[in-house]
Amino acid sequence: MKIDYGTQSKGKLLQATVDKPALDIFFTPKGSKAVCNSACNGCYYLSYFQSEKTAITSSQVPKLVEKSSFLGYSSVFLITSEILLAENWQEIIKSTGDTYINTNGKIIAEKEQSILEELESSGIEQIVLTANIPGFHLGLDLTDEKLVQKAFENIHNYESKKFNTIATVIVTSENYSHLSEMTYYVKNVYKANGVKFISHLPLPPDGIYDLSPSLEQLQLVIESISELREVFDVDEFSIQRSGTIGSQGLSDFKKKQFCPAGDSLITLVSQEEGSPVTPCIFISNVQIGNINGGIPVIDDNQLDSFLQLKEQAIQNGYCPAHFLSNQNGNNSQFVQIQVSEAKNEI
Ligand code: SF4
Question: CA–CA separation, 186 vs 193, rounded Å?
Fold first, then answer.
């Protein structure tokens, strides 16, 4: 089977340019407060909701997507906790034309056939689930491992459509040397079509610093990924590396392209006047602009400060979000970024 791993999301990022950036729309699936049916440690969604926030609600998303194309954004990424909790998730998917969905799998494990029928009729081709591999994700409080496995089983048992399935595997300081075992688990137990490795970022309030892999550990991860890619035919089983794994081992050309944060990607977390605009879903404490007159307006000075830090982080092998989340109050070895006080916090 031909794997279309990441075709749509990757394509969206490749299309994005400084003149026509992509937009993350960060919304909450029910009401306007933080809500999810799981509570994973280091979750970017919960990290954004540490104080009173006025989030974008799911009912506002379709109009916002429409507005974003008038405003010149090349595409939209839907960022939330569990999108299937939103009553209007089908309307939201329709508004972006997405053919993939990210989910923790709980609803697929519980609802079985009925939710898969809805996914099929919504044009979904690819389902991306966060893995919880027995023995390898201890301490992260991810969605129960049996439920994740059940979700994969339900997807494979669904006869009307063969969805493309990807498992997102969180790499930690404890499991970084076991990529091969985790890859075989995803392939043989989940029977997924591919795996995507992302790094654990110790985002507040519950991210765990000790579980965040070091640069040296990520170097070994990158070497393992290269070796594993030699083992599997990409058309049969794809092995992906998320930006959070960092820029080590990339050519200078690829380093220039690999992190869109700030210049060709911005994140909108509220529509309230004065709310901060941030560079990436994993970076909630850096402001690069704000909502002004109902639209995101980028502040050149704030953006320049961030881009300076981003460049140095990348040149030193980091993903900027990994670097920032690991600073943990220590003095940065790079330039200090100007982090504006968020006035109207969302
Ligand atoms: S900061 Fe990291 S996670 Fe965010 S866009 Fe850049 S590479 Fe990706």
Answer: 9
